[in-house]
């Protein structure tokens, strides 16, 4: 069966936009033959693969972590609290509520048992290497893939410390292409970039880091057969669970806009295949059987 492979990127609560895309694909009867997900995209991919359906607001409530809600408050007291926590602890939240949510959703399911080929992307904290998790407990793999550095603790996995897959590649195009099952549709749920003059040295450093990440993201997206951008504007904060429905609705709009291109991908030749005329030109001529010259026709020896 011909279908598409999805590469679903991270973005916290903006990941509910992935649920919208998957709903649109179901309704349009677009076959999904492979899934690669990072962070929030890994959760959406696993939910689709194991048929766990949930409304965005319900899912946000299910995974909401009280420790993270403090991070959304921007008054002076909470800013000071965050600074102290950053200096005092290696991470800001244990993430126990989110892990409980993963276990409740997937129980003892394992990645290799997925009815649809599934890759959950994480990153090796020490080497920066992209790690493709293709076997093991789904809940634990999701905890690793969404372990945002400095926010959640890294996850120990077969002797490695793993963190958020977005650190290695914001949208897991490499992992999706490695499945080799069909055209890759990459979905980036980042906010729309906003250019502004930095007001402090820290803000300038953060903007420079973000610019570098955007450039790496653009290089990854260029390897996909089609990319879809959420481009939320005004921005949706990563842990602002009240924005789950808004991200979902915007995701539906972007997915419906992309349907004609997705259908065109499925109707076209297999990505990466050479056109027929090039394959014909590259064909090697068949060797002709050698013919021996009749003895009487051979010239006399001197």
From TrEMBL:
Which ranges form a coiled coil? none
**Which Gene3D superfamilies does this UniProt record tie to the protein?**
Cytosolic phospholipase A2 catalytic domain (3.40.1090.10)
One GO BP annotation of this record: lipid catabolic process
In alphabetical order, the GO MF annotations are: hydrolase activity
* One Pfam short name: Patatin
Specify the domain of life of the species encoding this protein: Bacteria
Q: Where is this region: Disordered?
A: 282-302
Keywords assigned: Hydrolase, Lipid degradation, Lipid metabolism
Q: Any idea which residues are catalytic in this one?
A: 39, 164
UniProt motif (GXGXXG) ranges: 10-15
Q: Where is this motif: GXSXG?
A: 37-41
InterPro entries from the UniProt entry: Acyl_Trfase/lysoPLipase, NTE, PNPLA_dom
Q: Which residues form the PNPLA domain?
A: 6-177
Q: Which PANTHER family match?
A: NEUROPATHY TARGET ESTERASE SWS, NEUROPATHY TARGET ESTERASE/SWISS CHEESE D.MELANOGASTER
Q: What is this protein called?
A: Putative NTE family protein
**The organism of origin for this protein:** Meiothermus luteus
Q: What is the lineage of its organism?
A: Bacteria, Thermotogati, Deinococcota, Deinococci, Thermales
